[in-house]
Amino acid sequence: MLALTAVSMIVGGGLVATAPAGAAEPAWNGRYSLERSAASKTGTSLAARQGEPDFSDTYTFTSMCLGGTCSAVVTGGPAPKNATLPQPPVYTWNGTSWVHVYDWQWDCYMGEGVEKVYAPAHSEAYYTPQPDGTFTGTWTTTITGGPCNGDVTMNVAAYPVAPAAAPFGS
Q: Is the pLDDT of residue 98 over 50?
């Protein structure tokens, strides 16, 4: 409910450039392509050893700071394929990085035509602002139980997406 309240409070805000790391009130606003380096993931889980291509999606972020706490909420983008992921995603500024911490159900891939096995999972994604306006970090998930028991870590990055150009003459 807190996330939905934050969304309703900040959706009307204008786009602001991202503040550099260490800024008094950081911002993560606008459209970003979030890229996950799944092809080079590491960890103890069976999922860390399963082949997977890198993937990305474009999301819209809106941020604000209230009472010393800064949050960035995903206010637009594709719906997740796994319905157990908390929506909307909310990132909190820890003084260095935007952090998204959440619990969900990992959907362990068991092979073509075999039903996935779900198990409790805890994820922490860290996106650290860079001087060029991008973000880099890691996303680590600890899976508790099932055949994918263990952890998976992959590098992540976020790149600003320029708005689409208006058609000539409009």
A: yes
